[in-house]
Amino acid sequence: MKNQESLEKLKDLLEGTRICMLSTYNEDKRIHTRPMAYQDIDENGTIYFFTNEYSSKIDEISVNNEINISFTNTDKNNYVVIKADAKLSKDRAKMEELFNPMIKVWFPEGLEDPNISLIKADLKSAEYWDTTSSKMVFLFNAAKALITGEPYNEGEHGKLDL
Fold first, then answer.
1. Which of 28, 40, 67, 96 has the fewest CB neighbours in a 10 Å radius?
2. Where are the domains of the chain?
3. What does pTM read for this prediction?
4. pLDDT digit string, tens, across residues 76-107
5. What is the CATH number of domain 4-161?
6. Which residues contact 121 (CB under 8 A, 6 or more apart)?
7. Alpha-carbon distance 42 to 44, whole Å?
């Protein structure tokens, strides 16, 4: 069972964010990062992404299943980096549950595409930076720090064990 308090904090931080940066490691142990739209974080602390089962990210996950997922929410001024273990999933019921019309941009045949799959990312830990202040508050506090010579208070920073 995942740490429910940490999971709820994570869901709150990610509310309103749909796009992230998914990082895998290629065969040369170099980081390969690309933007992805995530579909869901379930009650077990798993994030799902639609993908082509023959994509380079699946090749990379098959060599090293450790991934990082990074989120920036400029509306809420927070940032999250998640460590997870990933694997390919062909769970038809889960794909039907998560499928939406936007997925057809990448899979015009929809769920009938023989290559449509999911990346199932089992979350392990997260680190976050949460300023949750408006841009005006940020600018005021930044100006205050410049005038007073005191360091800027960046807000809350923490780690979540998932």
1. 28
2. 4-161
3. 0.82
4. 888 999 999 999 999 999 999 999 999 999 99
5. 2.30.110.10
6. 46, 47, 48, 49, 67, 69, 82, 84, 85, 86
7. 5
